[in-house]
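Researcher: Quick test of sequence recovery. Tokens follow.
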């Protein structure tokens, strides 16, 4: 944050609240300082050449459209927790079994797939546990937005901003969040049924966040937003006078 201090100046605003001055927005009240503005207007130019960029370039031997990837990361349906997990994974700035092995000199197996991880992005792209779950979730994803899951989507999401792409990215980001959490759980409880726990957690969080968003949109008279992003297909949610019914992502 200190590296962008020259782009921000603190000033008094109506003697009651603080504001900042940006090069693109002029005077801006803190009440109007959004995550989107912070990252895209102030931080994005610095993170364009983040240390993870050349490391990903070694894995994907074609131009990577980072501006679109950062847009994918700031998914309008995702919670801040989900965005943070994906943001850290894309920056290769998250702790995994590979990091533990590298730091300690150990050669311990991944607690999810029981093979020795050879790269930090093991749990994102090459872990058999992750690959199996993405294979099982594929039929549901096809109901949202057709297309086979590939390594690019597993790493960065699908580029685009249509409702179907945004919803599919949200679901795969949620899956990544659940897998990342389960890696830590598996290191403490190796004998648990980790695949089942991931599926249950994703189904539960999927339903809870959709129901919460529905009531939020209803309260703020934004049902148009809910219809646009969730009800463009019958595969996700069905609203009746008596209940909000969501389809499970995973069949248990």
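Model:
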């Amino acid at each position: 944050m200190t590296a962008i201090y020259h782009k921000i100046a603190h000033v008094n605003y109506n003697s009651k609240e603080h504001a900042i001055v940006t090069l693109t927005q002029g005077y801006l009240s803190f009440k109007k300082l959004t995550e989107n503005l912070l990252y895209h207007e102030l931080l994005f130019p610095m993170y364009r050449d983040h240390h993870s960029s050349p490391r990903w370039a070694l894995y994907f031997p074609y131009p990577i459209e980072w501006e679109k990837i950062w847009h994918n990361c700031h998914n309008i349906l995702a919670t801040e927790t989900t965005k943070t997990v994906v943001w850290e994974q894309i920056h290769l700035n998250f702790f995994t079994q590979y990091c533990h092995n590298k730091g300690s000199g150990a050669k311990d197996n991944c607690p999810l797939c029981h093979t020795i991880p050879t790269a930090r992005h093991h749990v994102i792209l090459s872990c058999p546990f992750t690959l199996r779950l993405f294979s099982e979730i594929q039929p549901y994803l096809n109901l949202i937005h057709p297309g086979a899951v590939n390594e690019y989507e597993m790493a960065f999401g699908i580029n685009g901003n249509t409702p179907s792409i945004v919803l599919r990215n949200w679901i795969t980001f949620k899956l990544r969040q659940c897998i990342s959490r389960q890696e830590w759980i598996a290191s403490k409880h190796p004998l648990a049924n980790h695949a089942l726990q991931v599926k249950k957690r994703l189904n539960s969080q999927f339903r809870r966040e959709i129901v919460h968003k529905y009531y939020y949109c209803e309260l703020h008279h934004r049902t148009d937003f809910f219809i646009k992003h969730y009800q463009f297909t019958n595969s996700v949610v069905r609203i009746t006078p008596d209940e909000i019914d969501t389809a499970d992502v995973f069949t248990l």
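The first strand starts at residue 10 and ends at 13.
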